[in-house]
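Help!! Second protein's tokens look totally different from the first
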Amino acid sequence: MGRQRKGWSRAILNFIFLLACSLAGYGQTTDLFRLEYTVIPENDFGIRTNRYRAVANVPYKVGEEKYLVTGIEYNRYEFEFDVPLPFEVQTLERLHIIDLNLGYIFKINPDWRVVGIVTPRLASNFEMGIDNNDFLINGSLLFWKDMAKAEKPQRLILGLSFNSATGLPYPLPIINYNKRFHPNWSYTLGIPRMDFKYHLKEKHVFQSVLFLDGYFVNIQEEIALPGDDIGTSLSLSALVAALGYQYKFNKVISLYALAGYSLIQEGLIRDGNRDRAFTLNDEGNFYLRTGFKISIF
């Protein structure tokens, strides 16, 4: 029974890793500008994580209800190791993910828009410049229906996302349904995020949220691990539950903060086949995030 439970746990974590990697770029597509800081306090393995994130996207009108979007996202991860590990950790202390975004948005009828996004990515510790293994390619195709003027405003996004970090030859689903079912209440259902919000006089929003987080980063200098294993990449997959507050200066500009806990989390060093080589963290932990953003809704 213990092995069976462990097998199910591994299967769930692998599924979360695939979704988190595939959808990692999706959350940025509604942001024109974002600055964000995330901290995961020191865990039982003696590892503290800081993440700094910056996003900028610029839309250009190229026709009637047609837009070209270009942008960039930068994520920097800094790790502090307070407990000795059986290998050198210097090359893991600072990781970088750089995304270049190219998107195209157009209407196919009065209700539906199509959004296509291609995102070349560099994900590495950049110890020796840039090499071929640092490069990944992500892409998303979305169908977006917005009913903002309805008595109960709604938004539906359906699509597929492909990420070469997952190692899968097929895309994974994106689902997002948002509804303002009461002047003070709204909810979002879907993947990679679900939330339930209370809107107090439009400027103050309180929320409970469940979302996926994760990354996959190349390690340029191979790591010699116990058992003659060789580590070539680092990954995180997490399912996070949180409570949050958002202060809205207007409909699109806001400050926000989240405090939560990772219900499921796994940080791994992976080998050349992207299989598990060493577990850095498989315990839940507190998760704190704050930031400023300008979004399209």
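Here's the second one for comparison:
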Amino acid sequence: MKAWHIGLGALALIAAPLVAATTQVRPSDFARVLIDGARPAADLMRDEDRKPADMLAFAEVRPGSKVAELNPGGGYFTRLLSLAVGSQGKVYAVSSRPLPWLDAWTSTRPNVALRSGPITDPLAPEPVDLVWTTQNYHDFKNRPADAQGKDGAALYNEAAFAALKPGGIYLVSDHEGAPGSGATQTSTLHRIESAVVIREVEAAGFKLEARSDVLKHPADDHTGKVFDSGIRGKTDQFVLKFRKPRAKR
């Protein structure tokens, strides 16, 4: 069963012209997004740690982009994506849980819609340019396997591939695990080794295109729980950009 919740509001976003896909996206392109008055103060305080302009540029977010965000949590990146894609774009927040902040945000920014339902449901009602997930992949591994033995990560990877346009991007970022730890610490330290993610996402049909070191923290020895006060916000995180192959001519 699919449930789509679309916020309605009296105020509309100012339309932004579509940018050619060949145009390079730079962190400076998001300067206005970062200082937008609609962003909560709590989000602004997290910017130094989360490097949003670099992340959005790496994922090639543009005005008019259609995005599916997996498990948006408190909406930090959802709000940024909503502002970055503008009124001609769309952000589909994919969550099995209620999002208390969503109604307030979409009352004035109606380009965000909630998709709730099984993982096997489509992530969006239209093909998207980008599937985005941050600090969630390890949690996907903790979901019980389905009747075919596929865990949540495998199901989400398949759903991402199906949702994307040919040539679309799958952005995955998470807390790095210690070398050799694989996926053994997903429910304890809430970490996963990037090598596991690359192997699994490529098995779903994607190609790894690039890695970013923007969230790299060499001081993190990968042995601490990511919520511990001494490391929270400063964990060593990998940022991976995968591409869905373009259709052959």
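Reply: Different proteins will give different token patterns, so don't panic. The longest strand covers residues 164-175.
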